[in-house]
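Exercise 7 asks you to align residues with tokens for two separate proteins.
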Amino acid sequence: MSRKVQDIGNQYTSEANAKRQRHERLKKVVKKRMIVFGGGLLAIILVLLIMVGMQIHSNQQASQERQAKEEAYQKIQDEEIELKERLNNLNDEEYIEKIARDEYYLSNDGEVIFKLPEDQQKEKQKQQE
């Protein structure tokens, strides 16, 4: 509305102007409230999204760590089984006798041990490894 038109100073126009001004002020207040509450809601949503992202990252790290520990645990279990088998073998007299004959060339009374050239080659390979 242009200002070339002058208001008539009657009661109706002054009430209409006052009503229009109240309405404009109310719109400004509502707009400010919407901005404040919208900004607060946006801030809360951002904080929650950041927390979710951090939690996902933490869960991934924990999962990787758990998997690594499970692998280490499995290796330890395998080693334990191997050591138990070895212990059982060391308690077996036949096994001990076999080891003594193969590695230390021990013999029973009346036995003679012969070293073959193939045995010497196998020993050299074992020593190189």
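Second protein for Exercise 7:
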Amino acid sequence: MTDTDVTLTVNGTSRPLGGTPAHTTALDWLRDTGLSGSKEGCAEGECGACAMLLATPTPDGGTAWTPVNACLVPVYALNGQEIVTAEGLGSPEDLHPVQEKLAEAGGSQCGYCTPGFACSMAGEYYRADRAPIDASAPAHDEDCPAHDAEHGPNGFDLHALSGNLCRCTGYRPIRDAAYSLGSPADSDPLRQRLQEPAPSAIPTDAVVDGARFVRPATLAETLRLLHDEPDALLVAGSTDWGVEVNIRGRRAPLVVAIEQLDELRTLSIEDDVVEIGAALSLSEVEKRLDGRIPLLAQLFPQFASRLIRNRGTFGGNLGTGSPIGDTPPALLALGARVVLASVAGEREVDLAEYFTGYRQTVRAADELIRAIRIPLPLAGLTAFHKIAKRRFDDISSVAVAFALDVDDDGIVTAARIGLGGVAATPLRARATEEALIGQPWNVATVRTASEILKNEGTPMSDHRASADYRSLMLGSALLKLYSTTQRPQAEGIDSKEVPA
């Protein structure tokens, strides 16, 4: 591959990437080429000032404008792809409807975050299934989002902006601008673009100053490369590696991009198992499952932000081996298994046996995670509790996932509890599970099990929480779950025992 073969379409114009250092992020490349609308606020994917729109494929063969953090995406991962930045939405002489509404509402404040807000807002503006809400629907209709504080009368989902932070605290006018948006005109070029296919992934092999970025064409080619180059760094959404590059100055001699491999982007629901491809973004999984797995449906809105979920993957969250990832506790509670692939074939590992130490797993250097398998049927009672300093877009101090079965006689017949943030690895709360199984689902059982749960793991003190606080949150988590299935006052539970 020559330098002229590596290109990216930006705001409708093809631009060469050749010669760019292999570790360069899309944000740095954009600013170096003169497109300075995208800003660097945090370089960690938390503020959204760098948001851009990426053309991604839809199931019907069309395109969706998907907002992503430019600060985390390796620019070579965009070879042959198409993006739109704030400059491509409109100009001072011809504002885009999103930009116009932001200006009218006074939503720009100091303006630093505005380009990112505009791109995230535009992604929601062009969402195919966004539609005005019937305001005449009765207020008691729980399925009607007209009375949901996080949706506007035009169907705008405020979670689309959950990854965008305004330093001037100007959220009300930004929300007002979002809720005043109509539907895109038929003549809107970006709307018309949605009817055409998204760009296909282009195999890439770029070497600059000794560093190499590779996008293999197939899974077989990827596995062969891993076999020959066991030190290669696998990157999917790059929501973790991008932070390492930006904040810690990490560099890798060989990066292998796998997020567009068709073999890693499948999702199937069989009679006895749900299999989720390791490279499907969390947003794609959320949409395809459509609530089929209630525990994951609770997890998704609490996992970082929409900008991160548009790139982050199950495979990446498990592949890092981090003890504070949000998906492992939920997957542990679901009894998930990990499918590992290499040139020698595939093997399946119980997730409870997958983690071996801090950021260490049983995955060999020449293996990658191909899929996650969740057995069916699902437990009857599930919940995901995330304790963090912010409601959204934050790292958890403690994450607890429950999956219990209670029979008609009120006896707990099965229990799986996944924990995150309380040990060097995510883990199952085995002792608590044993204390529940075979016991009546009542306040006495729950209190006894809660005392055991508070001592599971080895909670430590850090900048997110103290060890005592983590232990307290563990101890109250089961009581909180129980309170959702009973009337606390009638069962003698003090409301102070159940945190909000």
